[in-house]
Amino acid sequence: MGLAATIDELINFESVDNSDLDKHIAAAGLDFELPPEMRRWWYLRMAYTKRPLQEKMTLFWHGILTSGHKKVADIPKMSAQNELFKQKGMGSYQTLLEEIGRDPAMLIWLDSRSNNKKAPNENYARELMELFTLGPGNYTEEDVRESARAFTGWGLKRKEGNPKGVFYFRDFQHDYGSKTFLGETGDFDGDDVVRIILKQPQAARYITTRLWEFYAYEDPESEVIDKLSAVFVSSGYAIRDVMRALLTSPEFYSDRAYRTQIKSPITLVVQTAKALNLTVSTKRMSNLALRMGQILFDPPDVSGWPGGAAWVNSSSILQRVNMANFIAKSLTETLTRQELVDLLLDGVLDPAMEAALDYFESETRGSSRVGVSRGLTYLMLGGPGYQRG
Amino acid sequence: MYMLNRRSFLKRSALAVVAGAAMPTILRRGVAAAQNDSQAAASNRKVLIVVQLKGGNDGLNTIVPYTNGIYYDLRSTLAIPQAQVLPMDNEVGFHPNMAAFAPLWDEGHFAVVEGVGYPTPSYSHFVSMDYWETAVPNSINKNTTGWLGRYLEQLDVATLGAVPAMNVGRHLPPEFQSTRVSISTVDSLDAYQFQEDPRYQGISDARFGALHGLYTTPSGDPAMDQLLGGAFQSALDGSIAVKEAHAAYTPAVTYPTSNLAQDMLLLAEAIHFNKDLKVGHVALGGFDTHANQLADQGALLLQFSEAVTTFWDDIVAHGHGDEVVIMTWSEFGRRPKSNASDGTDHGSAGPMFLMGNSVVGGLYGQRPSLTNLDKGNLKFTTDFRSVYSTVLEDWLGVSAKEVLGGSFEKPLLIANSS
Question: pTM of the predicted model, to two decimals?
Answer without folding.
Answer: 0.78
